[in-house]
Amino acid sequence: MPLLRTLPFFLILVVGGGLAVGYLTAPGTWYEGLEKPAFNPPNWIFGPVWAVLYVLIAVAGARIWLRERRSNAMHLWWMQLVLNFAWSPTFFSLHMIGPALVIILLLAATVIGFIIASWRVDRPSALMFLPYAAWVLFAGLLNGAILTLN
């Protein structure tokens, strides 16, 4: 029952925050004009992938909050959220591809750190972050390739 009371807050924070950041920093003509690598997925993929990942991020955050809210895992959870929400404005709004790459590499390290830290606290939360880690590492590769090509 505590999860059912806590989860809505985390869903609103993460999914709502992600939607707001995405709406405010939607890719425009600048992004369309960039050279992209051959492995760049079609634009329609990003929305559904992030929707699923944001739900997983929220559930993992709520679970850790209920178990050990002052833990290293929870601190890493908050750090990843800040870095996650910072990437889009840096890349899409400020057009700062290099600093965005730094942010996404820090995000990847934080996500992996969360997986390690939460493994002992709540293994399902750690497992929920595995697809997130894979996607962020892929996004980092994509960001790096765009930086190189432009």
Shape: elongated
Query: Which structural class is indicated by helix and strand composition?
Result: mainly alpha
Q: Return Rg in Å.
A: 16 Å
* Helical segment count: 7
Whole-number average pLDDT?
A: 96
Low-confidence stretches: none
Order of helices and strands: HHHHHHH
Give the DSSP E fraction (strand runs of 2 or more residues): under 5%
Helix content: over 70%
Q: Count of DSSP E strands?
A: 0
Largest sheet, if any? none
| Gap from first CA to last CA | 51 Å
Would you kindly provide a written description of the structure presented here, covering whatever features stand out?
With 150 residues, the protein is an all-alpha fold. The chain has seven helices and no strands. It has helices at 2-24, 29-32, 46-68, 72-93, 97-121, 123-128, 130-149. The chain is elongated and about 50 Å long. The chain starts with a helix and ends with a helix. The model has no long low-confidence stretch (mean pLDDT 96).
Question: What attributes characterize this protein structure?
Answer:
elongated; mainly alpha; 150 residues; 7 helices; 82% helix
SSE topology:
Elements: H1 2-24, H2 29-32, H3 46-68, H4 72-93, H5 97-121, H6 123-128, H7 130-149
Helix pairs in contact: 1-3, 1-4, 3-4, 4-5, 5-7
Brief sketch in words of this structure:
The protein has 150 residues and is mostly helical. It contains seven helices and no strands. It is elongated, with a radius of gyration of 16 Å.
